[in-house]
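chain below, 146 aa
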Amino acid sequence: MPSSGFSGTLSGPKVDVAIDMGNPLLNITVDGFLKIGTVAATRVAAEEAYHAVRKGSVSSHNFEHTLKKMCKEGAYWGTVAGVYVGAEYGVERIRGRRDWKNAMIGGAVTGAVISAATSKDKDRIVVDAITGGAIATAAEFLNYLI
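prediction:
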């Protein structure tokens, strides 16, 4: 029977959280969702704090708006990241290799899936798939350079 677990460490500026869902694909997908979703929510919090300081006022309405926006952006970008890392991992397992082609296919699949979920325009879906594949491939090449 599958089991799940949770563990976390904090050492210096790096926070690492491991969630064991009993399946490597689920583990990496949930990890990507949580990490990037947290980054997106934090970005919204910082942006909204800046706007509140600039306006010089904080109200319960603004606070509620900020929390809703944090949840929305965190869920959206977390989903994008989860789909991407899950697709890339799946392609890696199928191909049996770890290279830039996995990133390209994972990015294209993610671009197409996210676009199809938000738009019914077939041309837009194809363009987003190409864009996702190109961005993921470029990011992979940059990782090799650094």
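The chain has a mean pLDDT of 90. The chain has four helices and two strands.
thats it, cya
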